[in-house]
Amino acid sequence: MNDTNPKVSVIVCTFNQERYIAEALDSILAQKTDFPFEIVLADDCSTDSTGMICRLYAERYPDKVRYIRNEENKGVARNYFDAIREARGMYIADLAGDDRWTDPDKLQRQADLLDSDPKITICHAAWEMFTDDGRVFPSEVHWMPRKEEIVEGRSLLPIIVNHKKEERFIHLCTAMYRRDTTIQLMREYPGVFDEVWLPCEDFQLILLLAARGKVACQPQKVLQYRVGNVSVSSTENARKTVNFTGRVMFLTLRLARMLAAEPDYLDDYFRKTLHYVVMTAFNSGDSEALDESRRIADIHTARPMLKTRIALMLSSNRIIWKISRGLRRLLNQK
Questions:
Q1: pLDDT tens digit string along 30-58?
Q2: For residues 305 and 270, what is the distance between their CA atoms, to the nearest angstrom?
Q3: Which of 21, 26, 184, 333 has the most CB within a 10 Å radius?
């Protein structure tokens, strides 16, 4: 890298994405800007050829790509936040190693917007899904920006903290945000940025950035988000699903308390999510997943839904649990 500080740092965290990482990097390098930008490429100890591909890009684009190979596997959150610490830009954008940007003006447009108003802490845009076989389609469950607007971030906190994705959703891979504000938040709240149990990197960052200033959105589609692959937050393994969801619930509760929310602030979210967790464990037949769901039930004081309590009661006895699962499958087949 040369001595000229980039205006924007693009974070790319990757792990075993040999099939996709080149496409992701090419979509960033296709960006058209009147300012320098860098790619902070953080490889979390990939065991396939991802590392070799990353090194080739760093050699080919030494003025753009900074390759960091972790000495140990850090996990998604720690790898991401360490990459932010490595970033030199005034603004940060990010792209997952298996996704791709589709708008070559994304960085320029968002940097111009952040330049225009120092109170905007984060701006984001529209996106769509795509699969390995080339199908592209919109999400049916996520709110999508339809027009350009700027709102006070604190007005969005009840929606964001309760995970009401159908009312407002900020996809971090469509976003750009201020590095100095982020570093300040990381220093103030190490408990949601530096602990090893953290399930994700985007939720706490988006929520706290919104609490610090304005949130801007733009209607242009800038991202194609790959679906159909197993990821940290998308897995068919019941035990992993229950564990991940439970950690998200715990993180949500911690953030709500940091924001001085009322005790019943999250009741609806916790009831619905707890039911999902309990039924995932109940239907899986995995006793460890079920035990974990019981521990999760103790996180919050909200009284579970009746059907959740029934599932917990039926599964308290292993024989009754087995019979109940068999009957449920039989009824679902009719």
A1: 999 999 999 999 999 999 999 999 999 99
A2: 10
A3: 21
Q: Which residue has the tokens 């220093």?
A: 187
Sign of CA dihedral 132, 135, 141, 147: positive
Q: Which residues pair with 94 in a beta bridge?
A: 11
The 10 Å Cβ neighbour count of residue 313 is: 12
Planar angle of CA 194, 167, 142, nearest 5 degrees: 75
Q: Is the pTM of this model over 0.90?
A: yes
pLDDT of residue 317: 85
Structure token digits, residue 149: 């607007």
Q: How far is CA 109 from CA 84, 104, 115, 323, in A?
A: 21, 10, 10, 59
Largest CA distance in the chain: 69
Domain residue spans in the chain?
8-226, 238-333
Six token digits for residue 157: 């906190």
- The answer to whether residue 1 scores a pLDDT higher than 60 is no
Q: 12 forms bridges with which residues in the sheet?
A: 41
What are the backbone angles phi and psi of residue 180, rounded to the nearest 5°?
-65, -40
Helix, strand, coil tally for the chain in percent (to 5): 45, 20, 35
| Token code pair at residue 194 | 């530096």
Q: Is the dihedral of CA 17, 132, 143, 265 positive or negative?
A: negative
Taking the domain 8-226, which CATH number applies?
A: 3.90.550.10
d(CA 298, CA 226): 35
What is d(CA 43, CA 83) in angstroms, rounded to the nearest whole number?
10
pLDDT of residue 230: 53
Contact status, residue 17 vs residue 100, Cβ threshold 8 Å: no
